[in-house]
Structure formats: C-alpha cells, structure tokens
Amino acid sequence: MKIQAKTVDIAKATADMLAVFVFPGKNDGEVVFSEEAKRLDKKFSGLLTRMVDTEKFTAATSKTLFTYSPLAEQNQKVLLVGVGVLDKLSARDLLHLAAAVVNRAKDVRASELVVAIPSELIDRFGSQNFAELYAIGTRLGAYSFHKHKGPAEQAKVHEIGSVSLLTSPSKVSVVQSGIDKGEIFSLAVTFTRDLVNDPPSTTTPTYLGDVAKTLASKTNNISVDVMGKTEMAKLGMNGILGIARGSSQEPKFIKLHYQGSSSKTVVIVGKGITFDTGGLSLKPAEGMETMKLDMSGAAAVLGVFSVLSELKPKVTVVGLIPATENMPGPSAIKPGDVVTAMNGKSIEILNTDAEGRVVLADALSYATAKYKPAAIIDLATLTGACMVALGEDVAGLFCNNDVLSDDLLKVAAASGEELWRLPLVSAYRELIKSSVADIKNITGKRYGGAITGALFLQEFVPDTIPWAHLDIAGPAFTEKGSPLSPKGGTGYGVLTLLNYLESQK
Ligand code: BES
Ligand code: ZN
Ligand code: ZN
What is the rounded distance in angstroms from the CA atom of residue 428 to the CA atom of residue 94? Predict the structure, then answer.
C-alpha cells in the first residue's frame, strides 16, 4: 500500500473509492458538509444529503456511511466519514478516524482509496502533523498479522494498492513530508507488533539478540552488544540469572547504542520476558498464551531502534533489554530464594511471577553504573494491578522528576497514546522491606500493586537521574482488537518514545 499526497478535484477523481468528511453542526442533528463532500454531493444530485437525512447520521467521530456512486459510467464506492466535534478531536481520535476509513476500504476490497482532506482538519492539527498522524492511522489500521495462516487464508487478505490524501496545491508538499515521517513511525510500530505477535518459542532471548544484531548491521551509527550468561555473571546480574534458571533458553542482556550528534544520552529499557509462565508461582492455564506479550517493552525498544538511523534524532540513545523466559524448570528459582542485583541490593523472591522487577533491577543498575544519562525510561508489562487501576488502554507513568513526567505526558498525548501519571507513594516503601534481605519482590498485600512494583524499581535508580517507568501491561496487547490494532500486540510506547527522542536537543 502506497500513501501519497495529491491535488485532484474530488469530483474528477477516478479511483474506485472516495472518502469525504462531514461535521456535526451547531444545532442538534445538523450535519455540515466539508467543501469536498459538498462538491461530491452536487455531482451525485444530492445523494449524500439524502443519505445523511434517512440514516439520521450525526457525523460522530469515526462513524461512516457507505454507498455507490449513482452515476452509471462509474462504479465508485463512496464513504461519508463523521469527524465529530472538531475542537474536541485529539491526536488519538485522528488515528482512529484514519483507521476507520482504511478498515472500511479493506472491507469493501477497494484497490485505490482517495481521501479528500478537509481544510478544517489541516487547520486543527497543522499540515505536517495532520499528515503524519493520518498516515500512521492508515498504516496501523491496515496492519494484519497473517504469516502463520495457510495459503488459502493468506490469499483472502485484501491489500489496498494506494491511499491518496487530496489537499490544496500549496499544501501538497508539506502533507507529503508528513506522510513520509508517519511512514517511518509506522514501520517502527509494526516492527514491534510483529515481534509481540510471533509465537513465544520463536521470539526467545537469543532471537531478540539476533534481531538487535541485524538492526545494527544495517547502519553505521548503531552498535550492538549481546551478553550471555558468563558476561552477566561477571557483572553480578543475579536478578536476570536467577529468573532464567527455570528455562532451557540462555538469557541475554542486549545493549544497543545509537550515536546522535549530541552527547546527551537517553537510556530506554524494555522488559524482555519472552514468556511468563509465572515460574514456580505458576500462572493459571487460562489466558497463559497471552503471556507472550511480556516482551512488549523489549519489542518497543527494538522497534524504536529499527528506525533511529532514518529518523536521526540529535540525542544519543542507549537501548537495554534484559531478556529471559520465566519458566518452572527443575533449576527454577524458588519462593524464599535471595538474589543480589548488580547494584548490591539483595532481593527476597517471594513470588516468582513478580519476575519483571527482578530483571529490571539489573538493567536499571547497569544503566546508572555505565552511563550518565539525561533520562532513563523503562517500558514494562509489569503488573496486572496497573490494568485494574487504568483499564486496558491506558499505561501508568511513574516518575521521579516533574519535568520528565510533563514532557512524556505531553508527547504521549500528541502521539495518540494514553498515559496517566500515578504516584510513587513513599510511605508504601515499608511494604517492600524484607525480613531476610534488603527488599522483597512482592508486598503480600492486595492493594496498590502498580505503585509497589514501581517503588521496587526505584530502588535501582538514584534520585539524581530523571527516571520514568511506564507500566504498559494494559495497552501493549489487545484481546478484543480495534480498527487501529487487530487482536495482539499494539506497539504501544513506540510513538511516544520516538516523539520524545526527537524533541530532545
Ligand atoms: N507479566 C506480568 C504482568 C501482566 C499481567 C502483564 C497481565 C500483562 C497482563 C507480571 O510478571 C506479573 O505476573 N505480575 C504479577 C505481580 C504479582 C505477583 C505481585 C501480577 O500482576 O499479578
Ligand atoms: Zn510474572
Ligand atoms: Zn511478567
């Protein structure tokens, strides 16, 4: 599928599918047509107006009405798309809008889709930004993961040939440059989705290491180092090594380094549990298959690195991935065991299913020992409790620095990713004190699990380094699917990270 900017009169467009936009009016039930929708309506002798009236269409956001051109010589498919109240339209709504349009086009097996962009939308978001978001929504909405299906099923998957965004001659080049940028961002997100969606026995720690090596081999400003058990042991990474004991797969500690033009360094860390059975504190069978999602943080870091050399942010970026399976094999770590993380803190393991924090302890220790980062940002599918707090669509943000927190919240909103700050309640630190070690990996209490998970991580970062923890357990994976993402990995966090890195000078 090609996405391109064009200047063509919608009334003269010959593509087999056209999309035009309408808005809710000031009065109840009133619908206002965009200029392009008006032109098409006129060409079709008022068909679109009659459709809106009969269907009582309200032009609510992402709602669509489908018809065919009434003109005999053309067999065009026509989609009327509701924008919703313009002043309330968020970046996220725009992604959904674009995804809704491309999904409808896919359903009716369109081969060429022409979308008449109304000036109102361009004015609201800015030409470049609008085009960027619209391209991302289109690309992500068109995404499907079907490589493991048989040939007959694969053949049924419909690919749209081209999506053309119609705009005025003065805007066409800036819209094209927004599309190009959106394409790069989308590639990173789909790269992440593919990694999460692949089966867990494929995406082992070794496989993630190989993916990182392949990425680095394609460019000269990204270098990679994949450490195995021996090197980790030398560094004292007993958290990762402890969690890895139940698995036959060797754990890996993956380091990626992108050299920007600035010496300012941002470290991004991704939880890389390539399958989380819970270990000896075994999870129930029902739903366990979704625990292939537990490397979504790692996949987001790899997705980001897959496009860094094309995006060329100024800032230098280090990516760290502690990768291991969490399995209940014969040598598995046991509840009651104590491990000492790389920074010297001892951890009492009381529940082997709270493994993410234990592997991140080493990764965060490593980040603070080896670099002088301007910020450390970790992404982790850390707690079910964060999903209880914020639901499936919203990630939790924990941060020791208000500037970093505000930057991330702003950038996430502009990227169309839901992020909500939660507090690092210092009084709750008591709850992770252990009677036999420095800290324990669970509280044994029912409440505040996302917070105590974050507080555990905070033990491995000094207060002097701005640090943010994104608990992405909810939004990293969708079990119901949406127009913007089919069932499976969503690639959450990639857009926010890319926009954040770009914003750093
Ligand atoms: N990987 C899970 C968290 C998770 C749950 C991610 C659901 C996505 C969806 C994590 O390792 C885990 O099992 N956490 C436990 C912690 C508990 C034992 C303190 C949890 O959330 O139940
Ligand atoms: Zn777990
Ligand atoms: Zn986990």
Answer: 39
* Separation of alpha carbons 113 and 313, rounded Å: 33
Mutate to test the pocket of ligand 1, among 240, 275, 382 (most ligand atoms within 8 A of CB): 382
Going 121 to 127 to 131 to 132, the CA torsion angle's sign is: negative
Structure tokens at 471: 């608990």
The answer to whether residue 283 is catalytic is yes
Report pLDDT digits (tens) over 474-483.
Answer: 999 999 999 9
pLDDT above 90 coverage of the chain, percent: 98
Q: How confident is the model at residue 72 (pLDDT cuts 50, 70, 90)?
A: confident
Token pair for 463: 């207060």
Which pair of tokens denotes residue 225?
Answer: 């180092």
Nearest Cα to 302, choosing from 288, 323, 316? Answer: 323
Residue type, 308: L
Radius of gyration of the chain (CA): 24
Question: How far is residue 498's CA from residue 247's CA, in Å, rounded to a whole number?
Answer: 33
Tokens of 420: 């909500």
- What's the distance, Cα to Cα, between the start and end of the chain in Å? 34
Report the nearest atom of ligand 1 relative to the CA of 441: 19
Mean pLDDT over residues 213-234, rounded? 97
Q: Give the DSSP letter of residue 474.
A: T
Tell me 147's DSSP state. Answer: T
